[in-house]
Write the structure tokens for this entry.
Amino acid sequence: MKKYINGKVYNTLTAKKCGEYDRGYRSSYEWYHEELYLKKTGEFFLWGEGHAASKYCTYCQNGGSDPGENIFPITYDAAREWAEKHLEPDKYDEIFGEITADSENKIVAISISKSAHEKIKRNAQLKGISVSKYIEQLIENDE
């Protein structure tokens, strides 16, 4: 499926499929299937299809609904949350990097622009590392 949203193209044929999830039984009216995709730009989106009582249904003019499909752009954080719920840990690690508890790390709060934050998350994801590791590499390479 290909869809234009806010001047951007989302295409399941050209993006990388990261994982998929089925909710319920295919015979249920509430059944749906979702797939998480990653564009070459580092943006995520969900493609889904579902029956007439699912969140992917299409509404008819007569008040009823039919099965349908759609694409939704999602943020990096929403993609991580979706993956935490629906993917195996190894697959999650492959996409977002391994979550580790390192007692030698220091948690800090910084304020950066929203666009810089999105760029950092996107670049870290493209390298397959955490945001923290990406920032550490930027600092280490700056010396």
The longest strand covers residues 16-23. The chain has four helices and eight strands. Residues 1-77 form one domain.
